Amino acid sequence: MARQGLVTAVSSRAGTAVVVGWVRSVRERVAGARGLLDDWGRPQAAPPLPTGDYAAVLVCRDRILLVRDEQARIPLFFGETGGRVTAVSTSARHLGGGAELDRRYFCRYLTGNMAQPHTELTPFTGVHRVLGGEVVELSLTGRMRGRVLRRVRQAHDPSVPAADGPGLAGAAKELRLALENAVGRRMGRVTACHVSGGTDSTSVALLAARLSAAGQGCPGDLVLLAGRFGRGELAAEQPYLDEAMAEIRRHAPAARPVIVDADDVADFDDFQHHAGDPDEPHAHAFRAPFWSRLHAAAADLGCDTLLTGCGADPIVDANPFHLHRLARTGRLRQMTGQARDWAAGSERGLWDVVSAYVVRPALPLTAERVTALVRRRGTVLGGLGGFARPPWLRPGFARAHGYRGAGIAESRFVFGRRPELSLYEAANYLAAPDPLSWRRARQDGFFLSHPFLDPEVIATMRRLPAETALQPGRPKAVLREAMADLLPPRIGGRVAKVPFNQLYARGLRTHGDELIDLCRSARHPLVAEMFDVETLCRAVREAQFGMGDSYSWDRVNSSLALVAWLERLDRRSRAPRAAMPVTPGP
């Protein structure tokens, strides 16, 4: 048995397991790894996958298994040559090295910021991704035997919510229990909680504080981590942050508050480093400076997990795509009435709600084309949505390497045949930036963990009737009810937070010229083959002037991240390899 950093290795009569991350519980990593080996080590065994954030290689007596949990926080790749898997790694780059780049991957990546974690493609030919929830079976000599996707906790995942489900009080009780379990599974020896003063992060930190006070940990093992903005729009969040900190410490007086001054942080700071160093390009690299500063503070304190409230918005709020289900099942009058309630509660027009949650999911690519024709009017960013080809991506490259098929696949993943269920699948990948969080994890020795994306929490919300979760004018009504006895009134009653738009705008004002220079000076041949560089530079300039919207800015951000990633590719490829042979040593 061995445990070092993020890796746990155990051996038994069943074989050997190497687990990156944790199975079932952070505190019981060794026991969880041993349980995974015992469950799968029996010949032909195929038990359900346990919960956790892990990737594992199990070398059993008669086979080798590559396993990844369904939430897909920890990456896992394998290299294949001549029909034989030769090595496994959490780094695609270490397996790919100087391999030829797979241009299909870049078309898939450019369709949207959820593309990477749910496709087998990687940037390198001959390197494949183990998908979330997948079990890859190999012979002892590395020959492929099969690949199977397995769902977690199918018994808690009904395809149709019960029509006579619990009322708000009952739903809140179920969510409270599920969220407490999710937080408890993620608490380690020293646990950090990101606290922003919002409902989501404060809820997670309060539950962690109560668990810590109840004996699940040593005194002082809880760190409250926050970024402080003393000026600008985000300074308005400080009173909420102060109140959240005070309430959390009331439950856990020994908790250590760590306030990180973030006034000098802006998006795109040191962009070539943050976007260029991950194993894969990542659309959210522009936001890395803020998170990196918080991660560094947690690492200095020896934390082994960092809990965040990310992911709560799509999971515990009312599911707007329920309107799509009502429409496709012919309940138009009911759909219209609920859409009116939705519009009134969100201060939007009725048509805006119907268009976003009924029409666009039914015909996503067509809706984007129509929007682009109406709104473009001579600008690069006008009307640019999440799937259609951005104007700076060369048409010839897009046709040659399957951009249209990639866009269709991405739209089907985001909306699916039942968008009200696909929302939860897509949220899992949108809220968990694997490449960035994993790069920091390897550097700092701890994980960024998401209790709101726990399978039990997701299954609980999926079971609830939409009418229970929808309270016009009261977003996240079930969560607020669930945490009513803990949340301070000022935080429990707030319905809006100051967004991070100011950091983005400041970053573009500060670094816009550098980003344009990065594109124009790029030397990697794929940049010119893929992009009309001047059109991309024009898009950066339009975003700098505040033109466009979140969809179009995401497309710019992902393209810039790809340029930076390609520019640093050769330098990273010369780094020493860290891969695991798939056959046991002598």
UniProtKB/TrEMBL annotation:
Pfam families named among the record's database cross-references: Asn_synthase
Domain Asparagine synthetase stretches: 174-566
Entry protein name: Asparagine synthase
Protein species of origin: Streptomyces viridosporus T7A
